[in-house]
Write a structure and sequence with these properties.
With about 450 residues, the protein is an all-alpha fold. It contains 16 helices and no strands. The protein is globular, with a radius of gyration of 22 Å.
Protein backbone atom coordinates (compact mmCIF):
# COMPACT_ATOMS: atom_id res chain seq x y z
CA UNK A 1 0.00 0.00 0.00
CA UNK A 2 2.81 2.39 0.86
CA UNK A 3 4.38 1.97 -2.58
CA UNK A 4 1.09 2.64 -4.31
CA UNK A 5 0.49 5.84 -2.34
CA UNK A 6 4.05 6.99 -3.01
CA UNK A 7 3.52 6.68 -6.78
CA UNK A 8 1.16 9.61 -6.56
CA UNK A 9 3.94 12.00 -5.57
CA UNK A 10 6.97 12.92 -7.65
CA UNK A 11 10.20 13.35 -5.65
CA UNK A 12 12.33 14.82 -8.43
CA UNK A 13 13.36 18.39 -7.41
CA UNK A 14 13.81 19.30 -11.09
CA UNK A 15 10.08 18.85 -11.65
CA UNK A 16 9.13 21.31 -8.91
CA UNK A 17 11.85 23.73 -9.99
CA UNK A 18 10.47 23.71 -13.52
CA UNK A 19 6.93 24.28 -12.22
CA UNK A 20 8.09 27.19 -10.08
CA UNK A 21 10.11 28.78 -12.88
CA UNK A 22 6.99 28.83 -15.05
CA UNK A 23 4.28 29.40 -12.42
CA UNK A 24 5.91 32.22 -10.44
CA UNK A 25 6.45 34.57 -13.41
CA UNK A 26 2.92 33.83 -14.61
CA UNK A 27 1.60 34.59 -11.12
CA UNK A 28 3.65 37.78 -11.02
CA UNK A 29 2.22 38.79 -14.38
CA UNK A 30 -1.29 38.18 -13.06
CA UNK A 31 -0.61 40.21 -9.90
CA UNK A 32 0.39 43.19 -11.98
CA UNK A 33 -2.51 42.73 -14.40
CA UNK A 34 -4.79 42.63 -11.37
CA UNK A 35 -3.36 45.96 -10.29
CA UNK A 36 -4.23 47.48 -13.66
CA UNK A 37 -7.92 46.55 -13.38
CA UNK A 38 -8.12 47.54 -9.73
CA UNK A 39 -6.46 50.91 -10.32
CA UNK A 40 -9.08 51.78 -12.96
CA UNK A 41 -11.86 50.99 -10.47
CA UNK A 42 -10.25 52.78 -7.54
CA UNK A 43 -9.26 55.87 -9.49
CA UNK A 44 -12.79 56.39 -10.84
CA UNK A 45 -14.54 55.38 -7.61
CA UNK A 46 -14.87 59.05 -6.63
CA UNK A 47 -17.04 59.56 -9.74
CA UNK A 48 -19.77 57.28 -8.33
CA UNK A 49 -21.17 53.80 -8.76
CA UNK A 50 -22.41 54.54 -12.30
CA UNK A 51 -18.83 55.07 -13.42
CA UNK A 52 -17.69 51.84 -11.76
CA UNK A 53 -20.59 50.01 -13.36
CA UNK A 54 -19.88 51.58 -16.76
CA UNK A 55 -16.30 50.37 -16.72
CA UNK A 56 -17.51 46.95 -15.62
CA UNK A 57 -20.00 46.47 -18.48
CA UNK A 58 -17.52 47.84 -21.05
CA UNK A 59 -14.86 45.48 -19.77
CA UNK A 60 -17.23 42.55 -20.38
CA UNK A 61 -16.66 43.16 -24.09
CA UNK A 62 -12.93 43.25 -23.44
CA UNK A 63 -13.53 40.04 -21.47
CA UNK A 64 -15.06 38.35 -24.52
CA UNK A 65 -12.00 39.30 -26.56
CA UNK A 66 -9.73 38.14 -23.74
CA UNK A 67 -11.44 34.75 -23.51
CA UNK A 68 -11.25 34.31 -27.28
CA UNK A 69 -7.56 35.21 -27.20
CA UNK A 70 -7.05 32.79 -24.33
CA UNK A 71 -8.53 30.14 -26.61
CA UNK A 72 -6.17 31.12 -29.44
CA UNK A 73 -3.23 31.18 -27.04
CA UNK A 74 -4.19 27.83 -25.51
CA UNK A 75 -4.56 26.24 -28.96
CA UNK A 76 -1.16 27.66 -29.91
CA UNK A 77 0.51 26.40 -26.73
CA UNK A 78 -1.12 22.95 -26.87
CA UNK A 79 0.20 22.26 -30.38
CA UNK A 80 3.40 24.34 -30.36
CA UNK A 81 4.56 23.05 -26.96
CA UNK A 82 4.51 19.49 -28.25
CA UNK A 83 6.42 20.49 -31.40
CA UNK A 84 8.89 22.42 -29.27
CA UNK A 85 9.35 19.38 -27.04
CA UNK A 86 10.03 17.42 -30.22
CA UNK A 87 12.58 20.03 -31.40
CA UNK A 88 10.65 21.07 -34.55
CA UNK A 89 11.04 24.89 -34.41
CA UNK A 90 9.88 25.52 -37.98
CA UNK A 91 6.48 24.03 -37.19
CA UNK A 92 6.32 26.19 -34.08
CA UNK A 93 6.87 29.29 -36.24
CA UNK A 94 4.14 28.25 -38.67
CA UNK A 95 1.66 27.83 -35.83
CA UNK A 96 2.61 31.27 -34.42
CA UNK A 97 2.07 32.96 -37.81
CA UNK A 98 -1.33 31.32 -38.28
CA UNK A 99 -2.36 32.44 -34.78
CA UNK A 100 -1.28 36.04 -35.44
CA UNK A 101 -3.46 36.26 -38.56
CA UNK A 102 -6.48 34.96 -36.67
CA UNK A 103 -5.86 37.31 -33.72
CA UNK A 104 -5.66 40.33 -36.02
CA UNK A 105 -8.99 39.42 -37.63
CA UNK A 106 -10.67 38.91 -34.27
CA UNK A 107 -9.46 42.24 -32.87
CA UNK A 108 -10.57 44.10 -36.00
CA UNK A 109 -13.99 42.43 -36.02
CA UNK A 110 -14.72 43.39 -32.41
CA UNK A 111 -13.50 46.93 -33.06
CA UNK A 112 -16.04 47.26 -35.90
CA UNK A 113 -18.88 45.76 -33.82
CA UNK A 114 -18.34 48.20 -30.95
CA UNK A 115 -17.96 51.12 -33.37
CA UNK A 116 -21.33 50.59 -35.06
CA UNK A 117 -23.35 48.70 -32.41
CA UNK A 118 -21.80 49.77 -29.12
CA UNK A 119 -24.91 51.05 -27.33
CA UNK A 120 -27.20 48.10 -28.21
CA UNK A 121 -24.49 45.64 -27.15
CA UNK A 122 -23.86 47.33 -23.79
CA UNK A 123 -27.62 47.68 -23.33
CA UNK A 124 -27.80 43.89 -23.18
CA UNK A 125 -25.54 43.94 -20.11
CA UNK A 126 -27.35 46.51 -17.97
CA UNK A 127 -30.77 48.12 -17.79
CA UNK A 128 -29.37 51.20 -15.99
CA UNK A 129 -29.13 54.05 -18.52
CA UNK A 130 -26.45 55.84 -16.49
CA UNK A 131 -24.28 52.72 -16.44
CA UNK A 132 -24.66 52.17 -20.21
CA UNK A 133 -23.83 55.81 -20.95
CA UNK A 134 -20.66 55.64 -18.90
CA UNK A 135 -19.79 52.37 -20.60
CA UNK A 136 -20.17 53.97 -24.05
CA UNK A 137 -17.87 56.81 -22.98
CA UNK A 138 -15.26 54.29 -21.83
CA UNK A 139 -15.62 52.12 -24.94
CA UNK A 140 -15.05 55.08 -27.31
CA UNK A 141 -11.33 54.85 -26.51
CA UNK A 142 -11.00 51.25 -25.35
CA UNK A 143 -12.08 49.70 -28.68
CA UNK A 144 -8.95 50.98 -30.44
CA UNK A 145 -6.78 48.87 -28.14
CA UNK A 146 -8.31 45.56 -29.26
CA UNK A 147 -5.90 44.76 -32.13
CA UNK A 148 -2.80 45.63 -30.08
CA UNK A 149 -4.14 43.55 -27.19
CA UNK A 150 -4.79 40.60 -29.52
CA UNK A 151 -1.33 40.58 -31.08
CA UNK A 152 0.40 40.97 -27.71
CA UNK A 153 -1.41 37.99 -26.20
CA UNK A 154 -0.48 35.69 -29.09
CA UNK A 155 3.17 36.72 -28.97
CA UNK A 156 3.36 36.14 -25.20
CA UNK A 157 1.74 32.71 -25.65
CA UNK A 158 4.28 31.92 -28.39
CA UNK A 159 7.11 32.54 -25.94
CA UNK A 160 5.36 30.51 -23.24
CA UNK A 161 5.27 27.35 -25.37
CA UNK A 162 9.08 27.31 -25.08
CA UNK A 163 8.99 28.02 -21.35
CA UNK A 164 9.86 31.74 -21.73
CA UNK A 165 7.45 33.44 -19.34
CA UNK A 166 9.49 36.41 -18.12
CA UNK A 167 8.35 38.55 -21.04
CA UNK A 168 4.85 38.28 -19.55
CA UNK A 169 6.08 40.02 -16.40
CA UNK A 170 7.86 42.70 -18.41
CA UNK A 171 4.66 43.24 -20.38
CA UNK A 172 2.52 43.44 -17.25
CA UNK A 173 4.91 45.87 -15.52
CA UNK A 174 4.87 48.07 -18.61
CA UNK A 175 1.08 48.18 -18.67
CA UNK A 176 0.79 48.76 -14.93
CA UNK A 177 3.21 51.70 -14.78
CA UNK A 178 2.02 53.40 -17.94
CA UNK A 179 -1.65 52.84 -17.10
CA UNK A 180 -1.20 54.24 -13.59
CA UNK A 181 0.62 57.34 -14.83
CA UNK A 182 -1.80 58.06 -17.67
CA UNK A 183 -4.81 57.33 -15.44
CA UNK A 184 -3.58 60.04 -13.08
CA UNK A 185 -3.00 62.45 -15.96
CA UNK A 186 -6.23 61.96 -17.90
CA UNK A 187 -8.79 61.01 -15.22
CA UNK A 188 -7.93 63.96 -12.96
CA UNK A 189 -6.62 66.39 -15.60
CA UNK A 190 -3.01 66.72 -14.48
CA UNK A 191 0.12 68.04 -16.24
CA UNK A 192 -1.97 70.25 -18.49
CA UNK A 193 -4.26 67.49 -19.74
CA UNK A 194 -8.07 67.89 -19.65
CA UNK A 195 -10.01 66.20 -16.86
CA UNK A 196 -11.65 63.32 -18.75
CA UNK A 197 -13.02 61.05 -15.99
CA UNK A 198 -14.09 57.64 -17.31
CA UNK A 199 -12.88 58.49 -20.83
CA UNK A 200 -9.46 59.29 -19.37
CA UNK A 201 -9.23 55.81 -17.86
CA UNK A 202 -9.94 54.28 -21.27
CA UNK A 203 -7.42 56.53 -23.04
CA UNK A 204 -4.80 55.51 -20.48
CA UNK A 205 -5.54 51.85 -21.23
CA UNK A 206 -5.21 52.43 -24.98
CA UNK A 207 -1.82 54.13 -24.64
CA UNK A 208 -0.63 51.38 -22.28
CA UNK A 209 -1.65 48.63 -24.72
CA UNK A 210 0.22 50.27 -27.61
CA UNK A 211 3.38 50.59 -25.52
CA UNK A 212 2.98 47.01 -24.26
CA UNK A 213 2.76 45.69 -27.83
CA UNK A 214 5.91 47.57 -28.81
CA UNK A 215 7.84 46.09 -25.86
CA UNK A 216 6.68 42.51 -26.50
CA UNK A 217 7.27 42.72 -30.27
CA UNK A 218 10.81 44.02 -29.68
CA UNK A 219 11.54 41.10 -27.33
CA UNK A 220 10.15 38.48 -29.71
CA UNK A 221 11.89 39.86 -32.80
CA UNK A 222 15.21 40.89 -31.25
CA UNK A 223 15.85 39.18 -27.91
CA UNK A 224 14.36 35.68 -28.09
CA UNK A 225 17.07 33.04 -28.64
CA UNK A 226 14.94 29.85 -28.50
CA UNK A 227 12.36 30.20 -31.25
CA UNK A 228 13.93 33.17 -33.09
CA UNK A 229 10.68 34.26 -34.73
CA UNK A 230 11.16 37.00 -37.35
CA UNK A 231 8.89 39.10 -39.58
CA UNK A 232 9.76 36.95 -42.60
CA UNK A 233 8.24 33.97 -40.76
CA UNK A 234 4.80 35.52 -41.29
CA UNK A 235 4.94 34.07 -44.80
CA UNK A 236 5.46 30.49 -43.61
CA UNK A 237 2.61 28.15 -44.55
CA UNK A 238 1.77 24.49 -44.07
CA UNK A 239 -1.68 23.19 -44.92
CA UNK A 240 -1.41 20.09 -42.74
CA UNK A 241 -0.34 22.12 -39.70
CA UNK A 242 -3.11 24.64 -40.31
CA UNK A 243 -5.64 21.81 -40.43
CA UNK A 244 -4.18 20.37 -37.22
CA UNK A 245 -4.49 23.78 -35.58
CA UNK A 246 -8.12 23.97 -36.64
CA UNK A 247 -8.83 20.37 -35.65
CA UNK A 248 -7.37 20.61 -32.15
CA UNK A 249 -7.60 24.35 -31.68
CA UNK A 250 -11.21 25.03 -32.65
CA UNK A 251 -12.68 23.18 -29.64
CA UNK A 252 -10.34 25.18 -27.40
CA UNK A 253 -11.17 28.47 -29.12
CA UNK A 254 -14.91 27.83 -29.18
CA UNK A 255 -14.74 26.59 -25.60
CA UNK A 256 -13.22 29.85 -24.47
CA UNK A 257 -15.61 31.86 -26.66
CA UNK A 258 -18.62 30.18 -25.09
CA UNK A 259 -17.01 30.53 -21.68
CA UNK A 260 -16.56 34.25 -22.39
CA UNK A 261 -20.16 34.49 -23.57
CA UNK A 262 -21.15 32.69 -20.38
CA UNK A 263 -19.33 35.35 -18.36
CA UNK A 264 -21.15 37.99 -20.38
CA UNK A 265 -24.46 36.25 -19.65
CA UNK A 266 -23.55 36.22 -15.96
CA UNK A 267 -22.81 39.94 -16.16
CA UNK A 268 -26.17 40.51 -17.86
CA UNK A 269 -27.93 38.65 -15.04
CA UNK A 270 -26.04 40.65 -12.40
CA UNK A 271 -26.83 43.80 -14.40
CA UNK A 272 -30.55 43.28 -13.66
CA UNK A 273 -29.96 43.56 -9.89
CA UNK A 274 -29.13 47.26 -9.63
CA UNK A 275 -26.09 49.52 -9.41
CA UNK A 276 -25.03 48.35 -5.93
CA UNK A 277 -24.83 44.70 -7.01
CA UNK A 278 -23.05 45.62 -10.26
CA UNK A 279 -20.48 47.69 -8.37
CA UNK A 280 -19.97 44.95 -5.74
CA UNK A 281 -19.58 42.28 -8.43
CA UNK A 282 -17.03 44.42 -10.27
CA UNK A 283 -14.95 45.14 -7.18
CA UNK A 284 -15.12 41.54 -5.92
CA UNK A 285 -14.18 40.25 -9.35
CA UNK A 286 -11.03 42.35 -9.34
CA UNK A 287 -10.15 41.55 -5.72
CA UNK A 288 -10.68 37.81 -6.07
CA UNK A 289 -8.30 37.69 -9.04
CA UNK A 290 -5.47 38.46 -6.64
CA UNK A 291 -6.19 35.23 -4.75
CA UNK A 292 -6.71 33.16 -7.91
CA UNK A 293 -3.39 34.28 -9.32
CA UNK A 294 -1.13 31.44 -8.24
CA UNK A 295 -3.84 28.92 -9.08
CA UNK A 296 -3.80 30.09 -12.71
CA UNK A 297 -0.01 30.16 -12.73
CA UNK A 298 0.45 26.62 -11.44
CA UNK A 299 -2.32 25.36 -13.78
CA UNK A 300 -0.55 26.80 -16.84
CA UNK A 301 2.82 25.49 -15.65
CA UNK A 302 1.43 21.99 -15.08
CA UNK A 303 -0.30 21.72 -18.45
CA UNK A 304 2.75 23.03 -20.30
CA UNK A 305 5.05 20.56 -18.51
CA UNK A 306 2.76 17.61 -19.24
CA UNK A 307 2.28 18.71 -22.86
CA UNK A 308 6.02 18.89 -23.52
CA UNK A 309 6.50 15.40 -22.02
CA UNK A 310 3.80 13.98 -24.30
CA UNK A 311 5.46 15.67 -27.30
CA UNK A 312 8.59 13.67 -26.45
CA UNK A 313 6.51 10.46 -26.16
CA UNK A 314 7.38 10.24 -22.45
CA UNK A 315 3.95 8.98 -21.42
CA UNK A 316 5.00 7.45 -18.09
CA UNK A 317 6.59 10.74 -17.08
CA UNK A 318 3.47 12.65 -18.11
CA UNK A 319 1.31 10.27 -16.08
CA UNK A 320 3.51 10.70 -13.01
CA UNK A 321 3.38 14.48 -13.36
CA UNK A 322 -0.41 14.34 -13.62
CA UNK A 323 -0.75 12.29 -10.44
CA UNK A 324 1.45 14.68 -8.47
CA UNK A 325 -0.36 17.75 -9.78
CA UNK A 326 -3.67 16.36 -8.55
CA UNK A 327 -2.29 16.81 -5.03
CA UNK A 328 -0.65 20.15 -5.71
CA UNK A 329 -3.68 21.83 -7.29
CA UNK A 330 -6.27 21.49 -4.47
CA UNK A 331 -3.57 22.27 -1.88
CA UNK A 332 -2.86 25.58 -3.62
CA UNK A 333 -6.60 26.27 -3.83
CA UNK A 334 -7.15 25.57 -0.13
CA UNK A 335 -4.31 27.87 0.92
CA UNK A 336 -5.56 30.64 -1.39
CA UNK A 337 -9.15 30.29 -0.14
CA UNK A 338 -8.03 30.42 3.50
CA UNK A 339 -6.01 33.57 2.91
CA UNK A 340 -8.86 35.28 1.05
CA UNK A 341 -11.42 34.36 3.71
CA UNK A 342 -9.16 35.65 6.49
CA UNK A 343 -8.31 38.88 4.68
CA UNK A 344 -11.68 39.83 3.22
CA UNK A 345 -12.73 42.05 6.14
CA UNK A 346 -9.41 43.89 6.28
CA UNK A 347 -9.36 44.47 2.52
CA UNK A 348 -12.88 45.89 2.44
CA UNK A 349 -12.06 48.23 5.33
CA UNK A 350 -9.35 50.00 3.31
CA UNK A 351 -9.94 53.74 2.74
CA UNK A 352 -10.54 53.20 -0.97
CA UNK A 353 -13.75 51.26 -0.20
CA UNK A 354 -15.16 53.52 2.51
CA UNK A 355 -16.95 55.73 -0.03
CA UNK A 356 -19.19 52.83 -1.06
CA UNK A 357 -22.74 52.53 0.18
CA UNK A 358 -23.28 50.15 3.16
CA UNK A 359 -25.45 47.88 1.02
CA UNK A 360 -22.69 47.62 -1.62
CA UNK A 361 -20.21 46.72 1.12
CA UNK A 362 -22.53 44.00 2.39
CA UNK A 363 -22.81 42.51 -1.09
CA UNK A 364 -19.01 42.56 -1.41
CA UNK A 365 -18.64 40.57 1.81
CA UNK A 366 -21.26 38.01 0.75
CA UNK A 367 -19.78 37.55 -2.72
CA UNK A 368 -16.22 37.14 -1.42
CA UNK A 369 -17.38 34.49 1.05
CA UNK A 370 -19.03 32.50 -1.76
CA UNK A 371 -15.86 32.69 -3.86
CA UNK A 372 -13.86 31.32 -0.93
CA UNK A 373 -16.15 28.28 -0.88
CA UNK A 374 -15.80 27.62 -4.63
CA UNK A 375 -12.06 28.37 -4.93
CA UNK A 376 -10.82 24.86 -4.04
CA UNK A 377 -13.12 23.39 -6.69
CA UNK A 378 -11.82 25.88 -9.25
CA UNK A 379 -8.23 25.03 -8.38
CA UNK A 380 -8.73 21.30 -8.94
CA UNK A 381 -11.11 21.03 -11.88
CA UNK A 382 -9.88 23.99 -13.93
CA UNK A 383 -6.22 23.05 -13.61
CA UNK A 384 -6.81 19.31 -14.08
CA UNK A 385 -8.97 19.78 -17.18
CA UNK A 386 -6.31 22.12 -18.54
CA UNK A 387 -3.91 19.16 -18.42
CA UNK A 388 -6.48 17.00 -20.21
CA UNK A 389 -6.79 19.68 -22.88
CA UNK A 390 -3.00 19.99 -23.23
CA UNK A 391 -2.87 16.22 -23.71
CA UNK A 392 -5.08 16.40 -26.78
CA UNK A 393 -8.64 15.86 -25.47
CA UNK A 394 -9.76 19.31 -26.57
CA UNK A 395 -13.23 18.21 -27.70
CA UNK A 396 -14.04 16.69 -24.31
CA UNK A 397 -13.20 19.86 -22.38
CA UNK A 398 -15.23 21.95 -24.83
CA UNK A 399 -18.35 19.80 -24.47
CA UNK A 400 -17.95 19.59 -20.69
CA UNK A 401 -17.75 23.38 -20.35
CA UNK A 402 -20.66 23.85 -22.72
CA UNK A 403 -22.89 21.56 -20.67
CA UNK A 404 -22.06 23.03 -17.28
CA UNK A 405 -22.20 26.68 -18.34
CA UNK A 406 -25.25 26.70 -20.58
CA UNK A 407 -27.32 23.77 -19.26
CA UNK A 408 -26.56 24.05 -15.54
CA UNK A 409 -25.11 27.37 -14.38
CA UNK A 410 -27.00 29.92 -16.51
CA UNK A 411 -30.42 28.16 -16.16
CA UNK A 412 -29.97 27.93 -12.37
CA UNK A 413 -29.21 31.64 -12.16
CA UNK A 414 -32.15 32.57 -14.39
CA UNK A 415 -34.56 30.44 -12.37
CA UNK A 416 -33.27 32.00 -9.15
CA UNK A 417 -33.70 35.49 -10.63
CA UNK A 418 -36.94 35.23 -12.62
CA UNK A 419 -38.90 32.52 -10.78
CA UNK A 420 -37.89 32.80 -7.14
CA UNK A 421 -36.73 36.45 -7.09
CA UNK A 422 -33.85 35.21 -4.95
CA UNK A 423 -31.48 37.55 -3.09
CA UNK A 424 -28.26 38.57 -4.88
CA UNK A 425 -26.04 36.13 -2.95
CA UNK A 426 -28.11 33.15 -4.14
CA UNK A 427 -27.87 34.30 -7.76
CA UNK A 428 -24.14 34.92 -7.33
CA UNK A 429 -23.68 31.37 -6.00
CA UNK A 430 -25.71 29.99 -8.91
CA UNK A 431 -23.33 31.51 -11.46
CA UNK A 432 -20.34 29.95 -9.71
CA UNK A 433 -21.74 26.53 -8.75
CA UNK A 434 -20.14 24.83 -11.78
CA UNK A 435 -16.72 25.27 -10.16
CA UNK A 436 -17.69 22.61 -7.62
CA UNK A 437 -19.82 20.39 -9.86
CA UNK A 438 -17.07 19.93 -12.49
CA UNK A 439 -14.75 18.28 -9.96
CA UNK A 440 -16.56 14.93 -10.27
CA UNK A 441 -16.09 14.87 -14.03
CA UNK A 442 -12.45 16.00 -13.77
CA UNK A 443 -11.35 13.31 -11.33
CA UNK A 444 -12.81 10.52 -13.46
CA UNK A 445 -11.56 11.81 -16.82
CA UNK A 446 -7.99 12.65 -15.84
CA UNK A 447 -7.31 9.33 -14.09
CA UNK A 448 -8.31 7.22 -17.08
CA UNK A 449 -5.35 8.65 -19.09
CA UNK A 450 -7.07 8.04 -22.42
CA UNK A 451 -6.62 11.75 -23.21
CA UNK A 452 -2.83 11.46 -23.72
CA UNK A 453 -2.13 12.00 -27.43
CA UNK A 454 0.97 13.10 -29.31
CA UNK A 455 -0.44 15.71 -31.68
CA UNK A 456 2.76 16.26 -33.67
CA UNK A 457 3.36 14.95 -37.19
Amino acid sequence: MAQKRFAWFNRDPAFYKKLALIALPLAGQSVISFGVGLSDNLMVSHLGESSIGGIFVANQIQGILHMLLMGLAAALVILAAQYYGKGDIRSVKIIISFSLYIATGVGLALLLVMTFFGRPVLGLLSTADSVVSEGITYMAWLRWSFIFFALTNVLIAAMRCAGMVNIGIVSAVTVFITNLVFNYVFIFGKLGAPEMGVAGAALATLISRVIEFAVVAFYVLRRDTKIRYRLKDLTLRNKALSLDYIRYGLPVIFGDIFWGLGNTAKAAIIGRLGESVIAANSLVGNLSQLFFIFIYGIASAGSLTVGQAIGKNEYDTAKNYTKTLQIVYPAVGLVSATIMFSARGAVLSLPAFRALEPQTMRYCMEFLTILCATMVGTSYQMATLQIVRAGGATHFVFVNDLIFVWLVMIPMALVALLVFDAPPWVIFFSIHCDQILKCGVAVVKVNRYRWMKNLTR
